[in-house]
Amino acid sequence: MKGINWLGVVLGLIAGQVIGFLWYGVLFQRRWMELNGLDPDAPMEMSMDDNLAMGAGAVVTLVVVIGLAILIKRIGAQTLMGGAKWGLFAAFFFGATTVALRALYSTEPFGLDTWCLWSIDAFYLLVYFPVAGALIGGVGKRT
Predict the structure, then answer these.
(1) pTM attached to this predicted model
(2) Distance from C-alpha of 9 to C-alpha of 130, rounded to nearest angstrom
């Protein structure tokens, strides 16, 4: 893992958490909750399971950001635009398509709700990956 931009990785992780909070906690919270069978009007109480899920989500985000850092380093795209471009590439070809497979093979009939949930999840990746990639590619010193 020599040569990885660890400052960019940390900033990408933070960006992923902030964008995720805004995306799922502010912009699309109500609709995302409805599509997942949750009551958006119910009082929000954090359980131990919720805390574990949030922690696991941060770990998964860290793994994604490290993977982007390795890709960006190997490609030699260590600039702001190069990182953003390869982040978008990874989001489109790996992230959004994987989310699509989950939607296609879910037990729910494929309809407008499935399409809407896929859109919320996939477009989050299409925003977050390029931002993280730009931070990895264009910020800080590589060691």
Answers:
(1) 0.88
(2) 13
Quick check: is 43 in a domain?
Answer: no
For residue 124, count CB atoms less than 10 angstroms from its CB and return exposed for 0-12, middle for 13-18, buried for 19 or more.
buried
Flag whether 100 is in a domain: yes
> Tens of pLDDT along 102-126?
888 877 777 888 889 999 999 999 9
pLDDT, tens digit, for every residue of 56-90?
999 999 999 999 999 999 999 989 999 999 999 99
Q: Is residue 1 part of a domain?
A: no
Domain membership flag for residue 116:
yes
Instruction: Give the domain range for residue 17.
Output: 6-38+48-138
